[in-house]
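quick one before i forget lol
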Amino acid sequence: MGTDVYKEVKKFVKKTYYVQQLPHPAGRSFRADHYKPIYFWGLTRALHKAGIINTDEGCELARLYLDKYDERQFVEYGKLSGEFEYMNEISSTDIDCYCNYHKTDIPGRIQSILERVANDVDFTQYGLISAEHKPVKKDGRRGWEFLHFKKRNDYEQWFFYGIYYDTKNHGIPFKKGVHELAFFFDINVEKYPKCREQLFQNCPFIDALGNLEELGFKENLTKTIGDNKSKGNKWRLLFKRVPLTELGNFSYQDVKKRFEEILSQLRNEEAFYQEMMAPPE
């Protein structure tokens, strides 16, 4: 039903009945093959909220639907809507994890370790002059940005080291589905719209990116990693990441060692260093 009809019906029935709005079939925001899962989920949710079916019965309906229809489409919609998680009760284990997470202040402790690393690394060892740094929490990243270092070629480039926790802005999927300790080297494609094209035509630079990929980096210049329609995807030039679950202990020594290794690898790749990090002659 349309929004106006929905409002009038809800006003009329008040709290006597639960009213679930469904998208109008003539709408253009979804393809035709998406309407079946959307209507199914909307109706199932309405039955559950109205108390006509319980959670177990709702789960059984979902299982039947997955068997009878397109599993990929249904699961995709559930992930996009974020509503599947609300069908199940919160277990005592979930509550314990939630409480322990806040009690131990993991994000604060991670940020403290990253701050020590940012302050202790000697950037001059890697040919960087005046690498200012500041804490950031935006665009799905939490850690430290290093910017305003003196450079020969200006793409308003900067780099980040910290936690990559949300893929929406970058459009770059997690490697293992969990948050990552990540290094991103970025360029400002809004201020310098032709910079990617210029770099793409720089053969020694392209060769350097290939060499860095052999060391575990991923480059986002000659090929697109993830969704290039995401707002920040084209800003990401080069990155290196490791899932937090593969780190073992998140220690100052290990995090600092990894960062210094990355900087050393970039410094040793001469074509990349000269184009992106070298100070003016």
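fyi DSSP finds ten helices and six strands in the chain.
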